[in-house]
């Protein structure tokens, strides 16, 4: 294995600094369109209506959080993939 030179380390540090600046710029831009803590009243009303329709009675929505995970999408794909079960039968030898 080759030794890592000081020049390579300096290049990596500069690359990390550049990427950090890009991430911060993207986070700032995201904040402009989706301010933290602000949720339009229409969205809360829509969520409340959906909860009431699902539960069959009026319910109080206490908290709404933005999720960045794709758990629902992953579970949906998994359900579809596992619903198409292919059975493998052994071949008869001749």
Task: From the structure above, extract its key features.
single chain, 94 residues, mainly alpha, 3 helices, 60% helix, 0% strand, flat
SSE topology sketch:
Layout: H1 6-33, H2 41-55, H3 71-83
Give structural notes:
This protein is mainly alpha-helical and 94 residues long. It has a domain at 6-66. It is 60% helix and 0% strand. It has three helices and no strands. The protein has helices at 6-33, 41-55, 71-83. The chain is flat and about 65 Å long.
How would you concisely characterize the structure shown here?
Residues 73-94 are annotated as: Disordered. With 94 residues, the chain is an all-alpha fold.
Give the helices and strands as they follow along the chain. HHH
Q: End-to-end distance, in Å?
A: 55 Å
Tell me the β content. Answer: under 5%
- The SS-based structural class is mainly alpha
Mean pLDDT: 81
Largest sheet: none
The beta-strand count equals 0
Any low-confidence stretches, pLDDT <50, length ≥5? none
Overall 3D form: flat
Q: What fraction, in percent, of the residue positions are helical? A: 55-70%
Q: How many H/I helical runs?
A: 3
Radius of gyration: 26 Å
Region (Disordered): 73-94
Biased composition (Polar residues): 84-94
């Amino acid at each position: 294995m080759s030794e890592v030179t000081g020049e390579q380390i300096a290049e990596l540090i500069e690359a990390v600094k550049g990427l950090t600046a890009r991430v911060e710029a993207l986070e700032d831009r995201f904040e402009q369109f989706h301010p933290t803590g602000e949720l339009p009243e229409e969205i809360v009303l829509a969520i409340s209506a959906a909860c009431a329709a699902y539960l069959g009675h009026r319910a109080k929505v206490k908290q709404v959080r933005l999720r960045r995970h794709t758990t629902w999408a992953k579970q949906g794909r998994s359900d579809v993939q596992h619903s198409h079960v292919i059975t493998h039968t052994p071949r008869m030898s001749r």
